[in-house]
C-alpha cells in the first residue's frame, strides 16, 4: 500500500559543448575530470528510466488498495482477486528498484575514476571544488543505500498486507496495526527520498560551479 510516491530527482544531463582555457596539461586533467563526471550521468540513465514507471505502479497499487477498502471483507472473492493484482504490481516495483540499484552501482564504479583524477589537479581552488563535489556524491550514495533498503522493507510489508487481506479470518485489529506500521515505514522512505533529492540538487549545482572554475565555457547544443 504505497502511501507516498517517491519521485527521485535525477542528474541534469548536460547537453553541452565546451571549450577549455589554459595550458595543455591543465586541459588534459580538466577534460578527463569533465568526462569522468559526465560518465556518472551516463551510468545513471537506467536509474532515471525507472522513476516514471515506479511512480505509475505506486499509483496503480494505491487505487487497488482503495478499491479493497471500499469493498469490505464480505466480498472476499473480489478482495482476493484485487490482492493478487496488487502482489503482481509489487513484484514489478521490486524489479524496477533492482534496476535502479544496479544503475547506482554502475555510477559508483565511474565515481572512482573521478576520485583518482581529483588527486592530479594542481589548481587548489579547482581541487577544493572537486573535493566538495565528491563529498556530496559520496553522501548521496550512502543515502540512496538507505533509501533502497527502506523501500525494499516497504515492499515486503506491502506484500504481507495483501496476503493478510486474502485471509478471510484476519482480524481488523491486525490489519490496522499492520497499516499503521506500514505508514511509519513509508514515512522513512519519504524522509530518505527528500534527503537524496536535496543531495542530488546540491551535486548538480556544485558540478556547474566546478566547470566554471575550471574554465569550461558551457554552451547548449
Automatic annotation (TrEMBL):
The keyword Heme does not apply. InterPro entries: Lipoprot_YkyA-like (IPR019454), YkyA-like_sf (IPR036785). Keywords: Coiled coil, Exonuclease, Hydrolase, Nuclease. The keyword Nuclease applies. Gene3D superfamilies: YkyA-like (1.20.120.570). GO terms for molecular function: exonuclease activity. Residues 94-168 form a coiled coil. Signal peptide: none annotated. This is DNA repair exonuclease SbcCD ATPase subunit. It comes from Neobacillus niacini. The lineage of its organism: Bacteria, Bacillati, Bacillota, Bacilli, Bacillales.
Amino acid at each position: 500500500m504505497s502511501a507516498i510516491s517517491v519521485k527521485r530527482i535525477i542528474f541534469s544531463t548536460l547537453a553541452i559543448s565546451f571549450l577549455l582555457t589554459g595550458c595543455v596539461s591543465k586541459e588534459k586533467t580538466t577534460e578527463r575530470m569533465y568526462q569522468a563526471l559526465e560518465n556518472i550521468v551516463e551510468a545513471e540513465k537506467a536509474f532515471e528510466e525507472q522513476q516514471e514507471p515506479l511512480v505509475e505502479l505506486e499509483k496503480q497499487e494505491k487505487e487497488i488498495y482503495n478499491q479493497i477498502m471500499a469493498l469490505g471483507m464480505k466480498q472476499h472473492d473480489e478482495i482476493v482477486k484485487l490482492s493478487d493484482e496488487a502482489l503482481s504490481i509489487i513484484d514489478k516495483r521490486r524489479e524496477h528498484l533492482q534496476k535502479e540499484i544496479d544503475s547506482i552501482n554502475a555510477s559508483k564504479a565511474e565515481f572512482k575514476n573521478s576520485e583518482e583524477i581529483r588527486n592530479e589537479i594542481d589548481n587548489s581552488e579547482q581541487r577544493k571544488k572537486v573535493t566538495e563535489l565528491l563529498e556530496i556524491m559520496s553522501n548521496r550514495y550512502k543515502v540512496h543505500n538507505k533509501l533502497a533498503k527502506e523501500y525494499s522493507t516497504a515492499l515486503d510489508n506491502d506484500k504481507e498486507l495483501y496476503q493478510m487481506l486474502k485471509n478471510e479470518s484476519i482480524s481488523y485489529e491486525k490489519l490496522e496495526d499492520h497499516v499503521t506500521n506500514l505508514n511509519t515505514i513509508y514515512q522513512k522512505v519519504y524522509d530518505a527520498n527528500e534527503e537524496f533529492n536535496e543531495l542530488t540538487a546540491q551535486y548538480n549545482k556544485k558540478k556547474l560551479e566546478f566547470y566554471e572554475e575550471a574554465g569550461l565555457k558551457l554552451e547548449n547544443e
